[in-house]
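REVIEWER CHECKLIST
Item 1: Sequence provided? yes
Item 2: Single chain? yes
Item 3: Sequence as submitted:
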Amino acid sequence: MPLEILLSAGNENERRYLLPLLDLLAKRKIRPVELHGDRGYYSLRHEQTLSERGIRSRISRPRRKGEPIPAGTKTREVWRGKNDGSPHATRKHANAGRSNAPTPG
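Item 4: Structure as written out by the authors:
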């Protein structure tokens, strides 16, 4: 059950709705202790405002290009065409380099 809902266009940046959404929750006497979000919500303004409101920010921070992943960070391997034994991987590798064009003959 959602606590509050804001609707926007699908191609709009959601970051602009974070603080107004927290304001709506505050009007309903809902005061979060911490806020989790992906790195798309990160901004210095959000970090400062959350701190002023006594909310612990758990928003992921974006890394700069070339910056290493911090030690202890959980990572996951993403399948990018590796043959992991799945039928799709096998089929993809079996057809690698083949053209769909008819062969002369």
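Item 5: Key structural point noted by reviewer: The helical segments are 18-27, 44-52, 87-94.
Item 6: Recommendation: ____
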